[in-house]
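User: I'm preparing a small set of examples for a lab meeting where we compare how different chains pack in three dimensions. I only have the primary sequence for this one, and I'd like the structure in token form so I can line it up with the others. Please keep the answer compact; I'll paste it straight into my notes.
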Amino acid sequence: MKLHDLKPNPGSKKDRKRVGRGISAGQGKTAGRGTKGQKSRSGEGGRLYRQGGNLPFYRRLPFVRGYGFTPFTSVEFNEVNLDQLSAFKANAEVTPETLDQARLLRDPRNPVAILGRGEIKAALKVRVHRITKSAQAKIEAAGGTVDLIQ
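Assistant: Understood. Below is the structure token output for the 150-residue chain.
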């Protein structure tokens, strides 16, 4: 077999329909577009987002400017207060994984921040992404430790 012997399988290649080439071709005159109307013209269909005379969807929406929208670079934290950590026993390790198992996180994919509401009695080993100064002081006063995850 040589390169000049190669041929496509029969029926796999099909000539495109040549429209508008006279009445005997079967697709003459209007070339399968019907008569008149927007879709019969060349370059039909209007521009992108056009909705046939209705006010386009993107113009029905309010403007996005100023402080009315959330920047895409903002990070959303899972906020956990000290009074919620009372479920953990003394010397327990508090990490995003253990907080998720205790059903204290809204979305486990987001980083965790500990806030200072409430009191804590047990000494805990806390490893989270962010913590307030008051929360850190209360944890260390109870004999616990705080490590930040980068």
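A couple of notes for your slides: The mean pLDDT is 90. The chain is about 15% helix and 15% strand.

User: Perfect, thanks.
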